[in-house]
Structures are given as structure tokens and as C-alpha cells.
Amino acid sequence: MLTFTSMVSAGDEAMALGAVKAVSGAYPLRGELTASSEPFGAATGRAGGPEPGTLWLDSRLFALLGIEPGASVEVGEARFTVTAAVRTEPDRGASFLGLGPRVLLHVDDIPATGVVQPGSRVRYRQLFAGDPAAVAAFRDWL
């Protein structure tokens, strides 16, 4: 998983700064990720994050960008279809990168964005789950 801030745009005029989180299909390993089919809609638990080529936006970004679900937005050089409004993330805490509205996308889409380059401010996290003793032993080994 990696996180960073980036501009998200919908057309030539509408742009907003978003807190991007790129996740694999196994996200989240613990807890519940919830999303809705429309901004501020009823949240439901989701098994896994967005599929490649799609992304989920914080409900606030829909209004900031003037878009609806199904719209096309750009992150860097890549275009994505917005398929959901992300509501809660089990690992979302208070940090500099956590203050902006969330943009959740699949980690396989990161190269196409061209956003992560030498000098970029990116935070990488590797998540592990399993038997607590095995995870502790692995952590100690690292």
C-alpha cells in the first residue's frame, strides 16, 4: 500500500487535492472498508478495494469536482472511472496525508499515473495478517 497527495481533475476546470491511497485486492487485511454507490449514500461493507482502472472518491470530492458516480477523472496522466464513494477505512488515522479527501485506487494503476517519481513524497506500508505468533516472529526477523 502507498499513500501520497495528488491533484485529481475532472475536465479542464475542476481540480482538487486528494489524499491518494493505492491498495491491492487483499485490502483490508483487518477491519471493514465501507463504500456507497453515491456520495453520502448508505455505506456497505466491501470485500477489497477498487478494481484496476477505477477509483473511489471521498464524498466531498464529488461536489468539489462537480461529478457523479460513473464520471471520468484523472490522477496524473491516467484516467479512471469513479465507481463508488469511500466512506470508512479501518486504517485511516490522523496524519498529514490523512487530512485531505480520500482517493482510493488499485496499486497496479500507479505506474500509469506517472505521479510517483524520484523525489515524490510517498509513504509505503506493507501489511501482514496471520497467526499473531507467526506475525510477531516475522516482525522480529525483519
What can be said about this structure in brief?
The protein has helices at residues 59-65, 110-113, 132-141; strands spanning 2-10, 14-23, 33-36, 44-46, 54-58, 72-75, 78-88, 102-106, 123-124. It is mainly beta and 142 residues long.
Explain what this protein looks like in three dimensions.
This protein is mainly β. 15% of the residues lie in helices and 37% in strands. It has helices spanning 59-65, 110-113, 132-141; strands at 2-10, 14-23, 33-36, 44-46, 54-58, 72-75, 78-88, 102-106, 123-124. It has a six-stranded mixed β-barrel. The protein is globular. The mean pLDDT is 91.
Tally of individual domains: 1
Spatial arrangement of strands, main beta sheet: 1-2-8-5-7-6
Question: What is the 3D form?
Answer: globular
Distance between the termini: 18 Å
Strand residue percentage: 35-45%
Class based on secondary structure composition and strand pairing: mainly beta
- The SSE order reads EEEEEHEEEHEH
Give average pLDDT, whole number: 91
Q: Compute the gyration radius: what is it?
A: 15 Å
Say how many strands there are: 9
Helix content: 10-25%
Number of helices: 3
| Main sheet: strands, sense, barrel | 6 strands, mixed, barrel
Spans with pLDDT under 50 lasting ≥5 residues? Answer: none
List keywords for this structure.
142 residues; mainly beta; 6-stranded mixed beta barrel; 3 helices; 9 strands
Helix and strand layout, with pairings?
Layout (H helix, E strand, L loop, with lengths): L1 E9 L3 E10 L9 E4 L7 E3 L7 E5 H7 L6 E4 L2 E11 L13 E5 L3 H4 L9 E2 L7 H10 L1
Parallel strand pairs: 2-8, 5-7
Antiparallel strand pairs: 1-2, 1-6, 1-9, 3-4, 3-7, 5-8, 6-7
